[in-house]
Amino acid sequence: MTKNKTLDSKTILVVHTGFEHKKFIFPKLKRMGLNVIVAYKEKTSIDNYVNNWILTDLNDQKATLRNINSFLKNNPGVKIDGVVTFWEESTLITAKIAERLNLIGIPYEVVLRTRNKFQFREFCHQNGIRAPKHKILLKRKDLDYAINELTFPVVVKPVYGSSSAFVVKVEEKEDLKGIVSYVKNNVTTHPDSAEWDDLSIMVEEYIDGDEVDIDILLQNGKIKFYSMSDNYQTNEPFFVEVGQTIPSSLPENNQKELIEMAEEVLEKLNILNGVIHFEAKFSSNGPVPIEVNLRMGGDEVYSFVKTAWGVDLVENAVKIALGEYIKINKPTLPKKYLSGDYFLAEHSGVLSQLYIDQNLKKTKNLGEMHFEKKTGDICLAPPDGYEYLGWLTCWGKNLKESENYLEKAKAKISYKIAKFKTNSSIGKTKRKNRFSVALLNKRMILGQAKIKKIRNIELKDLKSLHIGIACNTYEDDSGVSAVEMELMSVGSLIGKTLKDKGYQVSFFDFNNLARVFNELQKSKVDLVFNVCERINNSSLLEPHAAAMFDMLQIPYTGSNPFTLALCIDKIRVKKLLNFHNIPTAKWDYVYSMDDEIDKNLNYPLIVKPGNTDNSIGIDNDSVVTNPKELRVQLKKVIIGLGRPAIIEEYLDGDEYDVSIMGDEEDELKVLPLSRSIFNNMEKGQWHIYIHEDKFGNRKPEDRGIVVQKPPKGVSKKFISLISEMALDTYNILDCHDYGRVEVKVDKDNNPYILELNPNPSINISDTVPRVAKIAGMDYGEFLEEIIKMTIRRYKNKPPYYHLQANLI
Questions:
Q1: What is the mean pLDDT of each run of 10 residues along the chain (808 residues)?
Q2: How are beta strands 241-246 and 222-233 bridged, if at all?
Q3: Do 200 and 309 sit in the same domain of this protein?
Q4: Which residues constitute the domain of residue 20?
């Protein structure tokens, strides 16, 4: 491409970055000599081709317009000359931006009308354009109308949507309700559904005939160029495309009628400028419009048109948006004839085998080859999902030759989709139709695929994993406690570290439970790094995050919900450790102020909440020396905090943290110990850690606590004893991947277990990562070791084994 000097000083605003295979657009824009501004929620891998970013949620139109105004105000030297998008879900906000900045574009109201398939059908009827009879389904009586008034077969489809997802043909009246129910229940599972204007459903009479795509360049109300291609679809009742040919093989008079119909539709819609992807059928009654997409067609469309006619849709779309006059001399015959095929799964499952001949790219007359799925990826076929594995195109001097080359190229690609085998009875019982459990099947398949991928992955391929970070974030620091600040920083640090090591990372904020559940359902993460410690602002609900991953069948790091819940309940832990003869300080517990306390306990005593973490509720006054002080502290815990209370005999010796990695079937690894010595504390200070030590302004050393990592002057025999006690505790409580056991000694150096902290905080300055560093692991290696242990655990054990084991 030769640089266009007239565009050197022009600035184009591109709305959205699109799919991975649309990356080629941005280096093309830079080669055109343009200044490129991109509006999107985050910076992406195209950053090298972007002059400026406007970071914004494109779904929030008001916020996006505000952010653009702020950008222009803060950059007075920047003038936006045009705006364009290549992404369907961004056509509305692009139209709004064009109107606000007085740029060339399609009117906002027109975009609203055309994106809404029901409103577009209404428009056609009102303007004398041939279109099928139709009905939007808003109330129960609308479905009755469709059954009684429409001529079958009919087609059910979302009012919004893309790629023919959830578009289903219905032959018989008695099947309509079931298929409408299928579409309603499943439509939210589509990855783009969050960006659709709404999830309404409509029914229309079926259109017979041959389907075509017409790609149009329109400037000042005049069609400057068009290209028509034949569109082939899967066997009905679904309408997933399986291939295309360009140019269309329809008779010339049919093509003429189709383009005249398209021109009429665009004129009556009052569309004057843009690149249009027009879908239509030539039916037994003549040409009928299906959809008008107000942006360049996706997937192979760009390369099809460029190869066949030598016309660059991206370049011309931008020139139209900038008001640059375009003149295209379309040849009478195409430069090349092209045929293309999509790779589709015959049934839902996992891509278990994939072979692509290394010589494929050397195949004569090869156009494009994209295979987007990798071995281990889930592949969803209708009715579970609507996905392509990839596509392949070839060219020739005529249509027959292009088809022959395509068949030869296809022979160099082979793949297998493995169906799932489960012990569940789901799907084996009699059902009314194939759609009745599609949503249930899809969710089951998605979950099983994630577990199967983790089981099959080689450790050398670790960085191919998409890691989710389950965490807690706070947008505003004001009013955020020190505990919450710690929760926020650890998730951010883990994400940054894994990104730096080459992993793809996504964050899931459990402070927004409704959103996070929806995001997890739709996400493509392979494994979640679980550092969530709050749900509904309560640490008591922390185990429910792990339970959610189990329900969604998403592999995750750390302990299971049973262990996490058990370890919060310190009273039950104490009982379990006593049952297994693990030494703990003498103790009792109460749930109310009237409960009796074991009179054999010797003062001083320490009073702790029975179900909190982070030493909440523990201060220097928690240690009591007489019944009066005891009652004050019990009142503080039971009435003030609303928690049961544990009363233990006070231990005044050193405290040890024993950090462990692994699980009982893996090779457990005890990391170097950490020792806290309290001998240098001020008079009147008890030898304990209080909440202020962990989250206050003063550090433990400010109170005279000396921390040794590893301990000094302690015999190997004593270290071994503490480690063995900690390992027993770790295994009894069924901890996974990593944990920290707290051990305290009395004045005679006898060790007692205080508690186990499963999923302890692993910020870089926390105990476990710091002793891991002593053992030779930097922070990134430490995180990767947890990921490796998680993978080994899922390889060796069945799903939900922790629940089965604990129920026996």
A1: 64 86 84 93 89 92 94 94 92 95 95 92 94 91 92 92 83 90 76 65 92 95 95 81 91 95 96 95 94 88 93 96 93 93 84 85 86 79 82 92 93 82 34 48 57 69 88 61 61 91 90 82 87 82 89 90 91 93 93 91 93 76 93 92 92 93 77 91 86 65 85 89 90 92 91 93 90 92 92 73 47
A2: antiparallel
A3: no
A4: 5-103
Distance CA 764, CA 459 (A): 24
Cα 283 to its chain centre, rounded Å, is: 41
Tell me, yes or no, whether 144 and 290 share the same domain.
no
In a domain, 86, yes or no: yes
Long-range contacts of 418-425 (CB under 8 A, 24+ apart): 418/349, 418/350, 418/351, 418/352, 419/347, 419/348, 419/349, 420/349, 420/350, 420/444, 420/445, 420/448, 420/449, 420/452, 422/448
How far apart are alpha carbons 480 and 457 in whole angstroms? 40
- DSSP-derived 3-state class of residue 65: helix
Count of beta carbons in the 10 Å neighbourhood of residue 347: 13
| CA 446, chain centre distance (Å) | 13
The dihedral through the CA atoms of 797, 799, 802, 807 has a sign that is negative
Closest to 465 (Cα-Cα) out of 454, 475, 479: 454
Q: List, in order, residues 6 or more apart from 746 with CB less than 8 Å away.
A: 651, 652, 653, 752
Judge contact between 17 and 45, C-beta under 8 A: no
d(CA 159, CA 118): 6
* Torsion angle defined by CA atoms of residues 326, 8, 94 and 275, in that order, rounded to the nearest 10 degrees: 20
Residue 190 sits in the same domain as residue 61: no
Complete DSSP assignment for 290-357: EEEESS---TTHHHHHHHHH---HHHHHHHHHHT--------SS-S-EEEEEEE--SSSEEEEEEEE-
Q: Are 88 and 219 within one domain? A: no
Q: Identify the CATH number of the domain in which residue 510 sits.
A: 3.40.50.20
Residue 529's DSSP bridge partners are: 469
**How close are the terminal C-alpha atoms of the chain, in Å?**
70
Shared domain check, 192 and 301: no
Domain count, the chain: 5
User: Quick check: is 726 in a domain?
Assistant: yes
Domain boundary among 335, 370, 403: 335
User: Which residues are CB-contacts of 400 (< 8 A; sequence separation ≥ 6)?
Assistant: none
Same domain, 721 and 787: yes
Is residue 610 situated within a structural domain? Answer: no
